Amino acid sequence: MKLGICGSHRTGKTTLAQAIADKTGINLLKTDTNAIFVQQGLHPSQPLDFPTRLKIQKLIIQAAVKIWQTDNFVTDRTPIDFMAYTLADIQGNTEVDFIELEAYLTECFMVTNQIFSKLIVIQPAIPLVYESGKAALNKSYMEHLNIIVQGLCYDERLQCPVTVIQRNIIALKERVSLGLM
Hints:
7 helices, 11% strand
């Protein structure tokens, strides 16, 4: 079993991944995207031009693939998340090399299909609490990412099964049960 938890930031992905790991005994593989930014001398919350964003996202997927080369795990980030954050940065006036973007999206779908046996989408629902060093509590941006994540999960290029945990399910025990169904 290779489970990927995906969704916007601050939705409880890491908490759910840890709870599934505890219940099943499979390894929890945390995906540290911040480390890639730091290695490049950047901060995850700073605005980036699109070529820089795409470069960072390519480094993130490369690093993640290395840690996902193991049997039976649950992880708190997936290529779906990586694509969502990349796509969310595109505004009406953003200059994008579409060929580069399409190659990146194709790679992310390919990695997802090759590695994961199931994806679990968590929607924004849990109460938001400010924590130093965590992503901003911007509900509008979280909703924007949620819609992108769900759209990516319905893209015909994705062949991996997906379970979407409904917003009204906030109890961790119930989230675990639904995720393992």
